[in-house]
Amino acid sequence: MERFVITGGQPLSGTVRPAGNKNAALPMLAATLLGSTPSTLRNVPDIGDVRTMVRLIEALGGTVERGADHTVTVDPTGVAPRALDPDESARIRASLLLAGPLLGRFGRATIPPPGGDTIGRRRNDTHWHAFDALGAEMTLVDFVHDLRAPSGRLTGADILLDEASVMATENAVMAAVLAKGTTTIRNAASEPHVQDLCRMLVAMGASIDGIGSNLLTIEGRDALDGTEAEVSPDFMEVGSFIGLGAITEGDLRIGPVRHDDLRMIISKFDVLGVRVDQDGDDIVVPSAQDLHVREDHGGKIPRIHEAPWPGFPADLMSIALVVATQASGTVLLHQWMFESRLYFTDRLIEMGARIIVADPHRAVVTGPSKLGGARLQSPDIRAGMALLMASLCAEGRSTIGNVHQIDRGYERIDEKLRSLGAHIERAPV
Ligand SMILES: CC(=O)N[C@H]1[C@@H](OP(=O)(O)OP(=O)(O)OC[C@H]2O[C@@H](n3ccc(=O)[nH]c3=O)[C@H](O)[C@@H]2O)O[C@H](CO)[C@@H](O)[C@@H]1O
Ligand SMILES: C=C(OP(=O)(O)O)C(=O)O
């Protein structure tokens, strides 16, 4: 067990290279199982969740080689549809993403409950509905789902997802690319990671129309080849560093980024007065920030809320909340997707933030407030990063326990922060 020890108040300046997007790398690793030959992924982040996914693939019979410079090659030729290990599965939410490829390729998948952030109920029903529509039969024994395609192969179908679930879309697509006939997925999620996955599948020989929209049409193929694919920069990490740069008063350059992925993020940070400049493939967060809440027309209090893509990402709400504590004015943050994601707000209040938690989904923040150091625990990836940001801008010393929750999603965050001038050490508990 490790913790971070932080002395806040240093301006952070320098250049950050964002890692590959965790939420793209995980489904892309799962998708390698659909090929009949090896696939190589570039820009795979070296984070806890990826290491767990690699172990799950190896336990299924895949051979995984990590090359230099964030390259991972998966040879799926030895893979068989064995039951996933329950303990490993429970470590990450994305273990559920092995269901689609196993079912599509072998007509069988045995899936124990996935894990992931404990941020409220994580609903899986949309996944089961999609597999059911493709002809899978499902039995549930001791929380383990056993999925089978009766004739060994799924059949294409017209599917209306009951919500635009990111991973259910990814699972449905991965199951459908080897199904017999045409599949239509309506109300599909279209986040950049869903797009990354779909582009990789097309490079493997899949036929997918509508990438980037909420209507995907897939013509099933008999087999797919391996491929090479690149994981896009993690716009959640980029968003986190934008927030961090804004509240620590240094000059930050972040890149390379994909500007298209950042439009809504930058527009919502702008509500908090955060200024971000584009410079080629980079973005720059300059030191001279005038953080104040931009009121809506007529002086109304603005609201920042998450939404499916191209809305503001749910995973950046905790980050926006910390930035709001440093902006003068009042803003409502509405985080409706998860029931328990705002609980960490109590810790910010302890540090000196002026926040009214109206209910489990809404927090009214009035800033700016002077934060002081505190003893903290990371409850989940993003709240952990948010508390880390608060500690870096607070006066005095903070400690953050449970840092494996931050390591699940952010690659060597302490090293990156030190290179920018932060006073942060990783220490045993
Ligand atoms: C590995 C991975 O990729 N994890 C991400 C993925 O999780 P995941 O795919 O599990 O999240 P989902 O998109 O399924 O849903 C998130 C929550 O929002 C609710 N919901 C979602 C869409 C909708 O139209 N209506 C609705 O109510 C769901 O019931 C659920 O409570 O997407 C989430 C939402 O962007 C992110 O927080 C996670 O980081
Ligand atoms: C909620 C997250 O991840 P997961 O879905 O993997 O738990 C996240 O990345 O913020």
Brief synopsis:
UDP-N-acetyl-alpha-D-glucosamine binds at residues 93, 315, 337. This protein is α+β, with helices and mostly antiparallel strands and 429 residues long.
List keywords for this structure.
429 residues; alpha+beta; UDP-n-acetylglucosamine1-carboxyvinyl-transferase, Chain; four-stranded mixed beta sheet; 14 helices; binds uridine-diphosphate-N-acetylglucosamine; binds phosphoenolpyruvate; UDP_GlcNAc_COvinyl_MurA; cell cycle; cell shape; UDP-N-acetylglucosamine 1-carboxyvinyltransferase activity
Helix and strand layout, with pairings?
Elements: E1 2-7, E2 14-16, H1 22-31, E3 39-42, H2 48-59, E4 63-66, E5 72-75, H3 86-89, H4 99-106, E6 108-111, H5 125-133, E7 137-141, E8 144-148, E9 158-160, H6 166-176, E10 182-186, H7 192-203, E11 207-209, E12 215-219, E13 228-230, H8 235-248, E14 252-254, H9 263-271, E15 277-279, E16 282-285, E17 303-305, H10 317-324, E18 329-334, H11 345-351, E19 354-359, E20 362-367, E21 375-377, H12 381-393, E22 397-401, H13 404-407, H14 413-419, E23 423-428
Parallel strand pairs: 2-14, 3-13, 9-10, 17-18, 21-22
Antiparallel strand pairs: 1-22, 1-23, 3-5, 4-5, 6-8, 7-8, 10-12, 11-12, 14-16, 15-16, 18-20, 19-20
The structure holds uridine-diphosphate-N-acetylglucosamine and phosphoenolpyruvate.
